[in-house]
Please model this.
Amino acid sequence: MLEENLGRKSRERLEFLEQYLQRGMLILEIGCAEGALGEVIRRNFDVAYYGIEPSLDAKIAISRLDEVWVSINKVPPNLQFDIIIAFHVFEHIHNIGNMMSKLCKLLSSNGIIIFETPNYFGNTRLPWDFNKEHIHLFSPASISCLLEKRGVGVRELSTGHYESAIYDDSMRVVGSKKKGVKELKHNFVDRLQRFLGDRYIIYGIGGDFEALVLPYVKASSVIAIIDSSKDKVGKRVIGKTVQGPGVIDDYLTEIFFIATYRYQNQIIQVLNEKGICRSHIITLQDILEN
Model:
């Protein structure tokens, strides 16, 4: 059995991790102890599993995992991990901000970090956590802020996870590297290109167009701009004079990009009445959702 040698908390963690595990991944566990969880994952999912463990448990873990280091500073900087795991570790780290920055550097561009830490005091029946080894007490808000400052965005956060009878209310967080503004802009420009191609008509230049299309559109790809509002007809936008819907007949074989979310259904109806099929109509909703 996959979970035969694991206790309650490790079985539940393994069940959660399975959705993310893929063959060939590189995984790093901070505070891997004797490597019991890593051994099961390594054997059953065909991954490379590494650990960090400063205690004497490392002597056992090294026989179960691919490699074990005593400190994050010993991890070769050229390694990029697909998943970094840490269960009830961060509350023990003095300079937690520095640790998060180092982990972020070790995380691959599409990698994720999965960790648990006590939710506030870790037990709703206790008024405080008097554990002297716990340097930090985290709330969902504070752990989210800590990650955001280090360039990690929270993808999932849940509470009420079991670590022990003492800490039966733990937070479980899944985070990933936040993409920079330049990268996001480049990706969205590419997305527009994939959906629209090199030639298309823009229909609708209201607020959605100004906020979501104008900053990213390539003027050289725009054949014409159409808007149903008389107030907009005649204006110059990205080097084109805005025309009214009366010119639709001139572009029946072209791709129409409806750059408004609010009025897209009305515009689709207008285009359909002109004989333009749905396959030649791309909406802003198509680009944002699909």
